[in-house]
Amino acid sequence: MRWKTIRKTGQRALAATLFPYLHWCWSRRIQLMPVLSESYQDGLPPAQKHWRKYLCRHWSVRRRLAALLEHYSQLDCLPGAWREKLLALGPVHLSLVPLKSGDALEVLLEPSDFYREGELGLYLRNGDGERLYSLSFTLGKNGQLLIGGLQGPRTTMDEGTVKWLGKEMFGLRPKSLLLSALYTMGEQMGGRQLLGISDAAHTCSHKLKSSYDAFWLEAHAKRHNRHWYRLPKREPVRDIAEVKSQRRSEFRRREALREEIAEAIRKAWEQGAVAA
């Protein structure tokens, strides 16, 4: 018998012994959704994720297993057409992002290819389909959306990409755009509480290139517990009175772009619900 087979058999036996009900529920969920045993973008299949660091580096195997079960038990909160595409490991188009130059980027909802950071991802892609930025999250218990990761451009892309994006989107940062998109999705789900992972609790905390803590604090988040930040229930409204007069024209364009994307997501949600 191969070592991997022996290890997998031992892991299942251990799970069945330590938390039999959770193990039974998860096994049943995998039977109902065979796609959970499939790998996406060469990542770890969802069926095996609870054996590795997942969402929060301090979580136990039991907590990771519960989080996966909570997510896949809640997919009915998404439009039926979206759910079908995601379970087929396909993308859902949410919105175009028009740029100053006349080109456009695309916001997509996809299975996350950062398998430690969440089950779903909001992706900002260019016309060639290259990932520029992504935000990974999982549907949590008690109406929560757990944000486990924010990723920027690949290292192979030009260093000026971030600055170029900022200028093309009237100063709207890609990470802020994706967070706004998630707020819009949360509203469509009936109002979800967003939680963001802290630097210290990130699954790859030793490799972070930018601070999650700083980004959450900029977004008016507060400490939820020692592992997570709790973002405002609704996305804060930005006050033009706090903007310097010479920057207000750009501010208006930036907020108009943000609202245009939010409205496109709302329409996509309605269309996905009708199509189902």
TrEMBL record:
UniProt keywords, alphabetically: Coiled coil
InterPro entries: DUF535
Coiled coil: 240-267
BP-aspect Gene Ontology terms: DNA damage response
The UniProt record lists the keyword Coiled coil: yes
Domain of life: Bacteria
Protein name (record): DUF535 domain-containing protein
Species, as recorded: Pseudomonas nicosulfuronedens
